[in-house]
Design goal:
Elements: E1 2-3, E2 6-7, H1 8-29, H2 47-67, H3 72-100, E3 116-121, E4 129-135, E5 138-146, E6 157-164, E7 167-172
Parallel strand pairs: 5-7
Antiparallel strand pairs: 1-2, 3-4, 3-6, 4-5, 6-7
C-alpha cells in the first residue's frame, strides 16, 4: 500500500528519523522552548511524550512492515498499541517521579536562623570563627561570631540566632535533659 506516493515502510522510516531528530533537539533546547502543559489534564500533551509516541510508533511500524506480512492497518494498530503502552510506562515510571523529585539545593540565609551547627573553628569573644551546619542535602560552612560576646570553643554545638551580611551570630546550644 502507498500513501502520498510512497510505500508505508518509507513513511514509517521518515517519521522515525524526523521524530528522533525533533526529540533530540527538544531535549537539548527544552529550557529555552519550555512548553507548560500544566499539572492538570493536559499532561499527556507533554512534548517528550508526543515525540516518544511518534518515534515508537514509527519504529515498530517500520519493523513490522519490513519483517512481517501483516495487513497495513493491523500493523498500524499494533504499533499504536505498543507505542501507547510504552509511552504510558515512560510517563508513569520515569517522568512523574522525576518531576516530583526535583529539589533545589538553594537556601536563603534567613533559612539558617534557628538551625543547630557545630563550631569547626573556635569563635573568640569579639572575632570570627566558623560553624558547620548539616542538612539532608549536604553541609554548609559559614563564618560566625558570638551573639553573647563570649568565646565558643571548637566542637561546641551552637544555635544560629541571626544572620547579618553572610555571618552567623550564634549562641551555645543548651539541650534539655529528658526526664523519661
Amino acid at each position: 500500500m502507498e500513501l502520498f506516493g510512497l510505500p508505508l515502510g518509507t513513511i514509517y522510516l521518515y517519521g522515525l528519523i524526523i521524530s528522533g531528530v525533533l526529540t533530540v533537539l527538544y531535549v537539548l533546547f527544552s529550557d529555552v522552548l519550555h512548553i507548560d502543559t500544566g499539572d492538570g489534564g493536559l499532561a499527556f500533551l507533554n512534548p517528550v511524550l508526543v515525540f516518544a509516541f511518534i518515534t515508537i510508533l514509527s519504529a515498530s511500524g517500520y519493523l513490522f512492515e519490513r519483517l512481517s506480512s501483516l495487513n497495513e492497518l493491523l500493523i498500524f494498530g499494533i504499533s499504536a498499541v505498543i507505542s501507547l503502552i510504552l509511552v504510558t510506562l515512560l510517563h508513569v515510571f520515569i517522568l512523574v517521579p522525576m518531576s516530583s523529585a526535583e529539589e533545589s539545593l538553594v537556601y536563603r540565609e534567613s533559612d539558617l536562623r534557628g538551625r543547630i551547627g557545630t563550631v569547626i573553628t573556635a569563635i573568640p569573644a569579639s572575632g570570627f570563627g566558623e560553624v558547620m551546619i548539616e542538612n539532608a542535602s549536604g553541609r554548609i560552612a559559614k563564618p560566625a561570631t558570638s551573639f553573647d560576646q563570649e568565646p565558643i570553643p571548637n566542637g561546641t554545638r551552637v544555635l544560629v540566632v541571626q544572620v547579618k551580611n553572610g555571618v552567623l551570630e550564634v549562641s551555645i546550644h543548651q539541650e534539655l535533659e529528658s526526664f523519661i
